[in-house]
Amino acid sequence: MSAVGKTYPPVGYVVGREKVREYAHAVGETDPLYLDPEAARAAGHRDVVAPPMFAVVYSTPAVFPAFFDPEVGIDFPRMVHGGQEFAWGPLVVAGDEITTEAELVDVSERGGVGFFVFETRSDNQDGERVCTGKWTCIVRGE
Amino acid sequence: MEVPELRVTPDRYVTVRYAGASGDFNPIHVDEEFARSVGLPGRILHGLWTMAQVARAQTEAAGGPEALRSLSVQFRGMGVPEQEVVVTSTVREEADGVAVVDAEARQGDTRIVRRGVAELRLP
Known about the structure:
The complex is a heterodimer.
Chain A: E1 11-14, H1 17-26, H2 32-35, H3 37-42, H4 55-67, E2 79-88, E3 97-110, E4 113-123, E5 129-139
Chain B: E1 6-8, H1 14-22, H2 27-30, H3 32-37, H4 47-62, E2 68-75, E3 85-95, E4 98-107, E5 110-121
Antiparallel strand pairs in B: 1-3, 2-5, 3-4, 4-5
């Protein structure tokens, strides 16, 4: 498929303290590191720490346009999220500025089912790779 | 090390809160009527919410977010609100300061996250 290797414009995301807390509450996290700036500072962090799965919040805006790219050709109503991988680097804390780039890395078909694999690469303001994500979308046949 | 079972019952509105927190407002998660119109039993859980429960089981067992190096999962059966989710994790190996953990999440007999593999930094 010709679109494999296509990259999408990097998207910036500034991590906000209240957004981290909102996310932590939504997924049931109770660790004070995520909720209480004093507790986070006492543990040596600049501000509240984003739970690892907060990667979804800062990388989704970069990868969603790729899902909808006509050149990729995903039939959205028949798509399901088949799999997800994240590998994490340094912790993300409130105040960080994360930049994420998305790439279509693989397209395959097995038994009439299409597999579209996207990679996201997220770096912080110091150029450190805070997260690499792999998003597998499955598109059922007609 | 061991990763204890995690049990959590998503309340009726958890998909609404997660949609707001994550930005994923796909109507199959927030609109009961729409979900039924496309053949679902009703609003379904976000797979990434369920994956966050698998992640939480790991970080709570390993002493915090720094311990979680990676997590990969597959989503299959659909999760629904107001039914208990059970995350089970089995340490497969511990070597060179890293534990490899197999994990899955179930609701009743339905596996909603399967083939989960986490890498944890050992203390």
